[in-house]
Design a protein that fits this description.
Elements (H helix, E strand, L loop, with lengths): L2 H27 L4 H20 L2 H4 L2 H5 L4 E10 L5 E12 L5 E7 L5 H17 L6 E6 L8 H15 L8 E4 L6 H15 L20 H19 L8 E4 L4 H12 L3 E6 L3 E4 L6 H10 L7 H4 L4 E4 L11 E3 L9 H9 L4 E3 L8 H9 L3 E3 L1 H4 L2 H15 L5 H25 L6 H19 L4
Parallel strand pairs: 3-4, 3-5, 6-7, 6-10, 10-11, 11-12
Antiparallel strand pairs: 1-2, 2-4, 7-8, 8-9
Helix pairs in contact: 1-2, 2-5, 2-17, 5-17, 6-7, 8-9, 8-15, 8-16, 12-13, 15-16, 16-17
The chain binds NADPH dihydro-nicotinamide-adenine-dinucleotide phosphate (NDP) and (2Z)-2-iminopentanedioic acid.
The site of (2Z)-2-iminopentanedioic acid has 12 residues, from strand 3, helix 5 and helix 15.
Length: 460
């Protein structure tokens, strides 16, 4: 073996050993955090060729540093319900990385929230934000509060109490939260009001996803879903395919799902099914999106009510059954680990061409493996759903400049960012020997910028 080849071989083995060793440490130090472990494993497995080529990252202990959040805050959120009873929830903010800019990432209100969930989301957010090319670090927060069945006043009181503590840790140049599951423009509005009152100043850039009348950006509401569709379109075109007439299944019927459906339809596809946590609807000629929007955005209704207005459609209890419907494109846009190995096998057997992760980590590691082995076009979350946070960063830019761009201006910037993310991830996958593997490409491209910034800034 020539000396250079020997050297590369030895670095490859060293990189594999290093990744194994740090991953074992992650499991040992975070024993119950299975979602966090899963997110770390996915990234680490992609990084072996980068570490082998640039051993400096190993010498700088970059992975050990990346898996430890810069700061984790947990706090009590006491509030009083409508019956006068005192209730207590647990709040979190995990400030993962400030290598590229102020901490940035959403807030989730859902009963399943715990430290593992918030850490997996914060870890992924760091690489996603890096991929956007904008100056934003990574963070995530939330609470194990269930907004379902709560009155308007209960939601407001809870959200104000949450912000009373969170306000001590955020700021326009420090940490800028936004929405996620269970947190939309209404909750962001209550949070902004409470922050403003406590801070005694109008700091518009402290939160993104605000209402348009007080510092919000046009197209932020649509951004994650539209961005997902723009990315799928770029991927299809690059592979000589077209979205025209493709049958699409979208899980969930929240913010990401609704606007992914809207743009996919605009781009010529036909969305035939969507869901909520009760079950899914199947309308073989195409979902009437106006009905879904009214039910979900205005009436806080359930997806089962769709069939009252469209009796030819079908509603089925349970959300996992949605993947049994044959389709060309599957867009999981609800929550983590929605597609497991058996759902993935079914989708492949039914002829799926592409999968796009509108939600964060909706596909298990085994299911990703199945899609990649079967040459299904697979768009990973960090790349395909980055449009939301990208427009959040554009909202921050508008707030700093004290001006507001038109919908068209923001939307065209979003389109450009999504196409750049596609190109950057595709190129990284090619450069590291696995063309078409965008899981690898997105992880590598996101990682390199963060790692280089960390090294440049010293051991801090
Ligand atoms: P929403 O709260 O607006 O909608 C969530 C949807 O998913 C609802 O239809 C909800 O159903 C369903 N859902 C939530 N949890 C579960 C669960 N455990 N099981 C089954 N269904 C569930 O959230 P978003 O649309 O904002 O977020 C959806 C996903 O997209 C999340 O993974 C989020 O992290 C990710 N994301 C969001 C971004 C954003 O800008 N909002 C940006 C990038 C990613 P039900 O109403 O019955 O609870
Ligand atoms: O997962 C995500 O990227 C988000 N929930 C959006 C974060 C943001 O800061 O806009």
């Amino acid at each position: 073996m020539k000396t250079v080849e020997k050297m590369e071989f030895s670095y490859l083995q060293q990189a594999k050993d290093y990744v194994d060793e740090v991953y074992e440490m992650v499991k040992k130090r975070n024993p119950d955090q299975v979602e966090f472990q899963q997110a770390v494993k996915e990234v680490f497995d992609s990084l072996i060729p980068v570490l082998a080529k640039h051993p400096n990252y190993m010498q700088q202990a970059i992975l050990e540093r990346m898996v430890e959040p810069e700061r984790t805050i947990t706090f009590r959120v006491p509030w009083v319900d409508d019956k006068g009873k005192v209730r207590v929830n647990r709040g979190y903010r995990v400030q993962f990385s400030s290598a590229l800019g102020p901490y940035k990432g959403g807030i989730r209100f859902h009963p399943t929230v715990n430290e593992s969930i918030i850490k997996f989301l914060g870890f992924e957010q760091t690489f996603k934000n890096s991929l956007t090319g904008q100056p934003i670090g990574g963070a995530k927060g939330g609470a194990d509060f269930d907004p379902k069945g709560k009155s308007e006043m209960e939601i407001m009181r809870f959200t104000q109490s949450f912000m009373t503590e969170l306000s001590k840790h955020i700021g326009p140049d420090l940490d800028v939260p936004a929405g996620d599951i269970g947190v939309g423009a209404k909750e962001i509005g209550y949070m902004f009001g409470q922050y403003k009152k406590l801070r005694g100043a109008y700091e518009a850039g402290v939160l993104t996803g605000k209402g348009i009348g007080y510092g919000g950006s046009l197209a932020r509401k649509e951004a994650t879903g539209y961005g997902t569709a723009y990315f799928m379109d770029a991927m299809f075109k690059d592979n000589g395919l077209s979205l025209d007439g493709c049958k699409v299944i979208v899980s969930g019927s929240g913010n990401v799902s609704i606007y992914a459906m809207e743009k996919m339809v605009e781009l010529g596809a036909n969305v035939i099914a969507c869901s909520d946590s009760d079950g899914y609807i199947y309308d073989e000629n195409g979902i009437y999106l106006e009905t879904v929007k009214r039910l979900k955005e205005e009436e806080q209704g359930r997806i089962r009510e769709y069939i009252k207005e469209h009796p030819h459609a079908m509603f089925k209890e349970g959300c996992s059954g949605i993947w049994e419907i044959p389709c060309d494109i599957a867009l999981p846009c609800a929550t983590q680990n929605e597609i497991d190995d058996s759902a993935a096998r079914l989708l492949v057997a039914n002829g799926v061409k592409a999968v796009g992760e509108g939600a964060n980590m909706p596909t298990t590691l085994e299911a990703i493996e199945i899609f990649l082995e079967n040459n299904i076009l697979f768009a990973p979350a960090k790349a395909v759903n980055a449009g939301g946070v990208a427009v959040s960063a554009l909202e921050m830019a508008q707030n700093s400049a004290r001006l507001a761009w038109s919908f068209e201006e923001v939307d065209s910037k979003l389109y450009e960012i999504m196409n750049n993310i596609y190109t950057t991830s595709t190129k990284a996958a090619e450069d590291y020997g696995q063309p078409g593997n965008l899981v690898l490409g997105a992880n590598i491209a996101g990682f390199i910028k963060v790692a280089d910034a960390m090294i440049a800034q010293g051991i801090i």
